[in-house]
Design goal:
The complex is a heterodimer.
Chain A: E1 6-15, E2 18-28, E3 33-37, H1 44-52, E4 59-64, E5 67-68, H2 74-81, E6 84-87, H3 99-103, H4 105-109, H5 115-128, H6 145-157, E7 163-167, H7 175-192, E8 195-200, H8 203-209, E9 212-217, E10 220-226, H9 236-243
Parallel strand pairs in A: 3-8, 3-9, 6-7, 7-8
Antiparallel strand pairs in A: 1-2, 1-4, 4-5, 9-10
Helix pairs in contact in A: 5-6, 6-7, 7-8
Chain B: H1 4-33, H2 40-50, H3 55-78, H4 86-124, H5 127-133, H6 138-175, H7 181-191, H8 194-220, H9 225-258
Classes of the chains: A alpha/beta, B mainly alpha.
Chain lengths: 254, 260
């Protein structure tokens, strides 16, 4: 395949009078790991929800593997989602299901896999994220935040997707656990050969998991380049953000 | 100063918009409930939660309502020397009206608000977004099982409420008002008709649908935060209770008109 796996073209999204996305252009090649950085309220999560089809853009187009999926519904939407994994910021594990049922959710409910086979695959996937089979029968409320992130990561990779979205994967974790999650993300994405789009404002995480970094500011991508160039971007906005300075062209969100 | 016509117009338009949204939502839930695919495990789990776990509250409410009803009918009937009609009027009132209404109101509080709070919490913790990304429709996986469970278990609960309510009246009449137990039960069984029971059961099916849809609708629209989830639970409970009472009146009128 030669073209990008995911492409956003001039995507705009408003809520009432507040325009959050003002024409986002972005593409991700197969196997590429792109991290989108940006401050709180810059529209990162809204961009991701539009790309996933959880929201419909007001203007612009979204292409997945060359197909226009901007307003896809029903089978077309399911076909796209079957090739996508998603790790939510909060983990978003289902409280009423055990750990293994969470991990195997897609297998049982969308792919029709038998529960016994699905459980075996779930336990094997939990092992990949360094969780033993002893947690398989626990409920999400019975495990730590870091373990919940690992379970969520296992759920996002079990169907071996072509593209994985990571929404603030290290938020709320201590630095050591966050680093372990970053390592796992890199290992899983490379192991699957999948493309990844991560949104974060954690620069340590961005440097570790990105091939390329893009910065979203006031609803537009204002810079994109290799991860190694992010501290030498020549862009005043990027410089201020990556160095975490209160002074500069970006006004703190307080 | 705000123009009163504008104010009334805004309220009216808002009301119609809300009714429209609710109707579209109810149509989607009904569509998901009566077409494949069905999640059998979820439906069973919800039947236990909505039906079985509601039995104590429905039973307790019914026994006290039946008892109070018998006392009041005895008091009113004694003014005309018509005390002997207590068993007849108790069974008529409970099977045609009170059994279904008590069950509906109790479940508006216990079940509808519970559904709204649960789904609202799932909405704000991104679990509903996660469902969609895992190729599971929230209408099929979350809402249809609750709808089907409520529609199928409410009639069973109403049957239980009818029996327990009548027994509440029997307890007071036999042990407090001096009725003969055998005569009381014989009068009850001889007087109640199949149509009286059917009226309560038809109402129960509609109340089940109202309770589940209001809970799911308010939960689905829940705003972020504890306040948003709390508001969803309150709105669902109030909305379901008012609709149960309103549709009870509409159905009672209709049944009287058609002679059921």
């Amino acid at each position: 395949m030669s073209g990008p796996l995911l492409k956003l073209e001039g995507v705009e999204k408003s809520f009432g009078t507040k325009q959050v996305l003002r024409g986002v252009d972005l593409d991700v090649a197969p196997g590429q790991s792109l991290v989108v950085i940006g401050g709180s309220g810059s529209g990162k999560s809204v961009m991701l929800k539009n790309a996933l089809g959880l929201m419909t853009p007001d203007k612009g187009k979204i292409f997945f593997d060359g197909e226009d999926v901007t307003k896809a519904t029903g089978k077309a939407r399911e076909k796209m989602r079957a090739r996508i994994g998603m790790l939510f910021q909060s983990g978003a594990l289902f409280d009423s299901l055990t750990v293994w049922e969470n991990v195997a959710f897609r297998l049982i409910n969308a792919e029709g896999t038998k529960r016994k086979d699905a459980k075996e695959r779930a336990i094997a996937t939990l092992k990949k994220v360094r969780l033993g089979s002893d947690v398989a029968n626990l409920y999400p409320a019975e495990i730590s935040g870091g373990m919940q992130k690992r379970v969520s990561l296992a759920r996002s990779i079990i169907s071996e997707p072509d593209l994985i979205f990571f929404d603030e994967p290290t938020t709320g974790l201590d630095p050591i656990t966050a680093d372990a999650i970053n390592d796992l993300i890199v290992e899983m994405v490379r192991g699957l050969g999948a493309a990844a789009v991560s949104i974060t404002h954690d620069m340590a995480s961005a440097r570790k998991i990105a091939d390329e970094i893009a910065m979203l500011f006031e609803g537009k991508i204002i810079w994109r380049g290799p991860a190694s160039a992010v501290y030498d971007s020549g862009n005043a906005y990027v410089d201020q953000f990556v160095n975490g300075r209160a002074e500069g062209p970006i006004q703190p969100a307080i | 100063m705000a123009n009163p016509f504008q104010f009334v117009g805004r309220i009216t338009l808002g009301l119609f918009a809300e009714i429209g949204r609710l109707a579209v939502f109810a149509g989607r839930v009904k569509g998901a409930a009566f077409t494949p695919r069905w999640y059998g495990g979820e439906i069973l789990r919800q039947m236990v939660r909505i039906g079985f776990y509601s039995l104590p509250v429905v039973g307790l409410s019914a026994v006290f309502i039946g008892a109070a009803l018998a006392l009041n009918i005895y008091e009113g009937g004694s003014r005309y020397g018509a005390e002997q009609f207590v068993p007849n009027i108790v069974v008529l009132g409970i099977s045609r009206e009170l059994g279904a209404v008590i069950t509906g109101l109790m479940l508006a509080g216990r079940v509808s608000a519970g559904i709204a709070a649960e789904i609202g919490a799932m909405r704000v913790t991104e679990q509903i977004d996660a469902l969609e990304t895992l190729s599971a429709s929230r209408y099929r996986y979350l809402y249809a099982p609750r709808f089907l469970a409520a529609v199928f278990t409410l009639p069973l609960l109403v049957v239980a409420a009818n029996i327990i309510g009548v027994m509440g009246g029997w307890l007071v009449s036999v042990y407090g008002l001096g009725f003969d137990s055998t005569v009381y039960l014989r009068n009850t069984i001889d007087f109640v008709t199949r149509d009286d029971i059917l009226v309560g059961l038809i109402k129960a099916v509609l109340f089940g649908a109202i309770i589940a849809i209001m809970g799911c609708y308010q939960g689905d629209r829940s705003q972020a935060g504890a306040t948003g989830v709390g508001r969803a639970a309150t709105l669902s409970m109030v909305g379901a209770a008012v609709l149960v009472l309103a549709f009870n009146y509409v159905l009672s009128t209709l049944f009287v008109e058609i002679g059921l």
